[in-house]
Amino acid sequence: MKQNLTALALPLLAASLLAVAKPALASEDIVKKARCVACHAVDQKRVGPPYKEVAAKYKGDAKAPAMLFEKVRHGGSGNWGTVPMLPHPADKISDDDLKAAISWILALQ
Q1: Kindly report the CA angle at 23 between 18 and 29, in degrees rounded to 5?
Q2: Longest Cα separation, the chain
Q3: Which residue from 72, 73, 62 is spatially nearest to 40, judged by alpha carbons?
């Protein structure tokens, strides 16, 4: 009986772990596909700030997702230095993908 329970529990555990990891991987894939990685990295400065610094700066800020959405969509400068971020229109990254990417970035620690 114990072996049967273990045999059943292991695949369920593995499936649940994959379900949790998949959105994170999907969001990382989104930033790669949208070429955000040309200017940003998870934990090192490139042209723009590292994603982890963005997450730390906006931690706990309920307005951050909407503000970052607008900033990425329309571009701008001044928040992270003098180098402007170019606009990223919907033909480069869809609204849903942009929202997923922002959620992934803000969840980084």
Answers
A1: 110
A2: 66
A3: 72
Structure confidence by residue, pLDDT tens digits, 58-103? 999 999 999 999 999 999 888 898 999 999 999 999 999 999 999 9
In whole angstroms, give the CA distance from residue 46 to residue 39.
Answer: 5
What CA dihedral angle connects 70, 38, 97 and 54, to 10 degrees?
A: -50
Domain ranges of the chain: 22-107
In whole angstroms, what is the distance from residue 30 CA to residue 96 CA? 10
Coil, helix or strand at residue 90: coil
CATH no., domain 22-107? 1.10.760.10
Cα–Cα distance measured from residue 85 to residue 91, given in angstroms and rounded to the nearest whole number: 17
Gap between the Cα atoms of 98 and 45, Å rounded: 21
Show the 3-state SS of 40-61: CCCCCCCCCCCHHHHHHHCCCC
